Amino acid sequence: MERSLVVSDVDGTLLGDEDGTRRFGEFIAEHRDSLKLVYASGRFFYSLVESIHEHHLPAPDAIICGVGSEIRDYPSGEIDKPWQRRVLQDFHAGDVRDALRSFPRLVDQPQACQSPGKVSYFLHGADATQLNALRKTLKFKGIHADIVYSSGRDLDIMPEGVNKGAATLHIAERLDISHNKIIVCGDSGNDLPMFRLGLHGIIVANAQPELVDYHRPGLFHATKPCADGVVQGLNYWLMEAVN
Question: To pair with 56 at 20 to 30 A between CA atoms, which of 4, 62, 102, 140?
Fold first, then answer.
């Protein structure tokens, strides 16, 4: 029987309630033979490894790091080279920073949040007009990039077409897992690219406003927060597969 692929955000989704995180671990252990597990985060690999150990998260098969700008195997940390070539093919972080210097409200996130494939700022309370102005500036400068804005604060500039959703599909292809066997889980705007793919989805009850009001067929809006909401959704989707 073909395994399912569970791809889940970490902070605010699997973390945030220690008891819920423990129950998620117990659920995965019970179903591990039928699941592949991937974590998808805005953070990078070694920061996530610390969280896996500290919070006793189940060992994943791979980690999508930096909002999709990196994919690494776990526990080796070996980088997915074909994906990295795609990410860095036409993207230069320095060009992005130069293009956006005229926007005074942009505040650089710490260096640990930056990478060659992702430029990250803090931008508090941005509206659609401000985000469109950023997009137009990048386009005018000839930079092919996407903007990911989440939690009313976090702004990530990524290579065009690179995000958690595209990285999820890359991993599924690598593992030879059908799209109808993928379940994606999250709580904030940088998870939207996963939900927009038409895959089975789980939005936890404590989700940020940009996800609370996001609806489409195939989405399960959990009534429980954090990892308990993920388990609630996994029970729903895996039961659907049985039926």
Answer: 4
